[in-house]
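ok so dumb question maybe but i'm new to this and my supervisor (M.) told me to 'just get the structure for LTA synthase family protein' and walked off. so i did the thing. is this what she meant?? sequence i used:
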Amino acid sequence: MKKNVNSWIIVFIANVMIALLITSIVLGLLFQLNVDAIIDWIQLNTRIFLLITFLIWGYVMIFSQFQINVVLRLLENPKYEIWIKKTYSITCLLLLAVLLNFALEYFQGSRGVSGTIDWIQVKTRLFLLGSFYLFCMGLFLFALIGRLYISSILLSAFVLTMGVLHGNKLKFLGEPLYPSDFTQTAHFTDVLKMVVGYFSPMSMVFLGTVVMMVVLVYKWLQEVKIHLVSRAAASMFALFMVYSITYHPTTFMGEIVEENHLEIVRWNQLKNYSNNGFVFGYLSNLNHETFEKPENYSQKRVEEMVQAILNEGGATPASFSDERYARPNIIFVMNETFWDPTKLDVSFSEDPMPNVRNYMAEHTSGSVLSPSFGGQTANVEYEALTGFSMSALQSGAMPYQQFIDSKARVPSLASILKEKEYRTIALHPYNKAFYKRTRVYQAFGFDTFISIDEMKHKEKSGSYIGDESVTDEIVMLLEESEQPMFVHAVTMQNHFPYGTKRYEENTIEVSGISDELTLELEVYAEGIKQADAATKKLVDFVSDFEEPTVVVFWGDHLPILGEDKAVYKELNYGDVHEEEEDYRSFHETPLFIYSNVDVERRELHTISASFLGPTVFELLNLDLPPYYQFLVKIRDEISGLAPTVKVDPKGQELLELTPEQEELLKEYQLLQYDLLVGHQYSLDLLFKTENE
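this is what came out, is it supposed to look like this??
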């Protein structure tokens, strides 16, 4: 029975190849064997090409019973059996690779089947090259395992999983899947818990049905195997080609890939993946340095630049000049997904954030230009703690895992304050391993990292530890400490998803949006309301606290509201289709700085998190260390800094930079490269300790 089934499959696939071959021969005769002309015709007439091929295949299949009898007879002869198996295996893997590559392009999200076909028509060469890459991966698996169908199932599972991850990341975060995303594979179960709310029961049933069908079909098939010698030869060829295509910029495949119209768009990864397809969009990020080495990077150039910074004023580390503010406590509260939902065109039964709105009106305030949307919280705190900018890195970079984890010392606000005998504490009510924070905070110079395991107050609100518990933990630390403190707190309560019932009661009602999205927005608004109340509790304590204390509060990024920005789309908020061009609508979050001592109120308009440290130092009349003086110089020219937008100190977008501003950014990038990736020539020059 299994042999008959295998024979039928062999004939089925053989006829597909025969149909493709006949169609190709006809086109070859029509276009006088001009390959470029043939490809151009197929690109313009893909549907006609497929229709002709299908009709020819249908005609050939009329003789399928005769073909099956021939195959069965040939399989009885060992000499013919070997070549039939080899040809059949290669054909199966080729067709599977094409189908899987089609699926990857379909998972781009907005194309659909018709759009995917249209893309293949335009990018036929890249599609075929990407399919060949997947074929080589499948061939290597086949050679390694020695079983065709098992290898095909494993390849399919891997590629389709990548496609689903890519599609869902595009849907929820508006970003493609990057190689750097897998630096967190150890935390997969944690990530799964965060997004499981968006998996419908029907999708899980469908997945289970597919798995069962695959198992049943496999039981009906007779596994195809090849000899060890053939496997060895196939594995060497496949591995060589996979390596050559993966690292094509440095191999013989580089010229071939370029001839097939590969156009890398590093500054806009959405366009990069859309233009080049998933395979080469993904590989372009694998092959490219996350932080490109500046052309003029050298010890001499760094030392010259540092000396110029020192000559401008800040020749010593921070010393606190005004006794009224002698070493005040500094509390950073980076609140998870805190944003003003009243910017959406809907009605709320009450203001979700009255207290924060009041603090913003009465105290120094503005907006933080977040480098992230919907996630990647660590990249926002990276900017806030180091003064570095994500705009210097390639899209998709995750510096905590890619750079800082391997460094013994990276200067930060914590290390600067630690030099002045501050107690420095990082607080995050979640798994301490996430984003490798344990190792990163050590490199930053924090004395202590309090995670969910060490917290004394860990009452939950919804799915995560509530913001009020974080406030209670901060209050306890302030009351117990006998020395000035810097506390960097990253909350967790308002993390997505919001599409399921999270709280016992949503006290804010929303109207003016479709029923299926109402719950999403009401759950989010409830979280903002509770965060607002927790913030008031902290500010009330600080206002009566006898020690000078400053609270810096901001949201890390905007929320994911519905699949594929469904809430934003329905309410016509911003330009969801051109997020890179409408960057500020999806990247600005509330910011205020409260102090229990008198400081001048300043309107900060829009600033990057990179400039929070020096801004706080200025407000409290603290002497700026040299590095912070350099950051102030940049901030006073470009206060908001992102890859596609630059904002001036008055909150206006800079459409064109002056030569001086361009040079300033180049120096900023050079200094970041030195401290983050390079030899840290500037480390001991800009960040001296008291013992030096």
